[in-house]
Give the backbone structure.
Amino acid sequence: MEVLIREDPENGCLLGAKIIARVVREKPDAVLGLATGRTPLQLYKELIRMHREEGLDFSQITTFNLDEYVGLPATHDQSYRYFMRENLFRHINIDQSRTHVPDGTAVDMHAECRSYEQHIIDAGGIDIQLLGLGRNGHIGFNEPTGSLRSRTWIKILSKQTLEDNSAFFGSLEDMPKHALTMGIGTILDAKRVLLLAFGPAKVRAVEDMIEGPLAAVCPGSALQLHPRATVILDENSAAGLRYADHYRWINENKFDWQRHK
Ligand code: F6R
């Protein structure tokens, strides 16, 4: 796992945007896996700026989002389809028909999950999957103790996740308790993964993900198995890492071609 520590979330997001922009430039028809939540907002703003000011071209890009709440239509302002439209898609030159978010209103949810997996395969697989990290170590909506080889499926959200996200819905009662999410197996199939985690609330999850044992109690620890996983942290989220100096040492001693420029 490549661990990059930046002084604050803003610099972390700028670096994340640079990594994604490089994929887009090198492969104009790349397949991007995207995430929602608070963490990637600044990264999306930077991609929008690069599109406007530097001509970063998304016209042939395909995207697959990690997850969607069950029962929320695309028009609901807390649906992840709505989030993506408002925070990225409508500001760049992406072909909306190439953007995919699981359909949380599907009548046959099992069929929806299976066809989501098939669409990813048909698109040639995900070139780079962006991820955030839940306070309990979840990635996508894969909550602790779920299978580390799961595929896109219907998941029951943990109480912790409901607490963390219910503010967006006004109250706990108004928040859906189920989501469709790519599984951990789906995420591990991406050619590259890029996880961002910032702030003191993520300290424990970051420790468990990077330095803890590979264990279903911390779904993020599954990334230890990925051959090309990059994690971007800020000083706060990295505060509990035993090997922080080692990660800094590694970065100082990289070959020039290994650096993210
Ligand atoms: C979002 C997702 C979640 C979030 C995680 C962190 O699509 O799948 O795993 O990445 O809950 O959320 P924030 O960024 O709001 O702290």
